[in-house]
Amino acid sequence: DTVAARLRETGRFAGPFRGMGGLEPTGRPYEVAAMEWFRLEDGKITERWGARDSAAIVRQVSQD
Predict the structure, then answer these.
(1) CA angle (33 as vertex; 18, 3 as ends), nearest 5
(2) Are 37 and 51 contacting, i.e. CB atoms less than 8 angstroms apart?
(3) Which residue has the higher pLDDT, 49 or 18?
(4) Cα 50 vs. chain centroid, distance in angstroms?
(5) Which of 18, 41, 42, 60: disulfide with 30, CB 3.0–4.6 Å?
(6) Which of 30, 64, 32 is nearest to 51 (CA)?
């Protein structure tokens, strides 16, 4: 009844993103490992939890 997934998340800072208010988009890419957990009931997702290293994303997309 529980499924876990580890994935590689990639993106580019092109607009408002994950609470990074105050930072202007730089167009820079990022890549981090992320994890997601899902709880299932009757074949449907009833709960979801996720984790990723947001500080690593900020370091990668911020201007030098």
Answers:
(1) 95
(2) no
(3) 49
(4) 8
(5) 60
(6) 32
Alpha carbon distance 43, 8 (integer Å): 25
Pull the structure tokens for residue 34. Answer: 């992320």
pLDDT of residue 54: 85
Which residue is it, tokens 């009757």?
42
Spatial contact of 33 and 54, defined as CB atoms under 8 Å apart: no
Residue reference for tokens 């105050």: 22
Q: Given a cut of 70, is residue 29 above it in pLDDT?
A: yes
Q: Report the b/e string of 15-54 with b at 16+ CB within 10 A.
A: eebeebeeeeeeeeebebeeeeebeeeeeeeeeeeeeeee
